[in-house]
Request: fold
Amino acid sequence: MPEHFIVGRAILAGDAAHVHSAAGGQGMNTGMQDALNLGWKLALTISGAASATLLQTYESERLPNARDVLRTSQTFHHIEIPHGVIGRWIGEKIFKAIQSIRSFGDAALARVGMLNVNYEDSTLSLQDSRQAKPHTHAGWHVLDASCKIGNRANTLFDIIRGTHGNLFFFVGDNPSPSTISRLRAVEQSVAPLKSHLRTHYIVACEAGADTATSDGASVITDGAQYLQTVFGLRAPEIIYVRPDGYIGLRTQHLDDRGLVDYLDLIYAKARSEVSK
Reply:
């Protein structure tokens, strides 16, 4: 793999950016993740809607991941296909030993299956919430969960499907009028970004759906608490999910200042438009 994925106007992805052992099929998965990471950033950049630094985060996020996968696939390759009869026998015993210990086997499966890929160290990941559970911090891919919109069964993956970013406002178990008012003010402040950003309210029961009704946002009912359980939600919170499905921001501060600071890392006009 090269030292850089972006040089001038040239951008490398997939097999052009990294060549792996066939062990585990990780090269293919890494290439797909490159495409998912690059696609939305490139689209915003070409349209003029991206911040000046957004495209550079493709390299800062994907290059360390690709380097880690390359190192891992080489290790698995040498274990799976060692030289000599004795080496192959030892490799087979090591794999069987790993699989026999469930915790090690699960960890190895997550590693090979690339279920632990995350961008926690990225400049686009801001964890400002005490409610997150493991793997639901900013920088991790959002987990799926069942929910309802307008009394119709739905899933979180279906809701975020598409090319938009998604902003979720969790109103809490027993939202006060003040909480609803603050979240609506935040919603209105980001309205100029509606061509790039969809907004949703998450309510804990059907009774709260009318309270959170908004002309520009959908209302997600989480009566069975699947979403709340996945995210560890109890108190009100704002969550931003990137177009590639990764959690960018989790914050319990219900005002637009921190949110605008964050969105300014992604969208060119976030600060100027929201401040009008």
Remarks:
- The mean pLDDT is 86.
- The first strand starts at residue 6 and ends at 7.
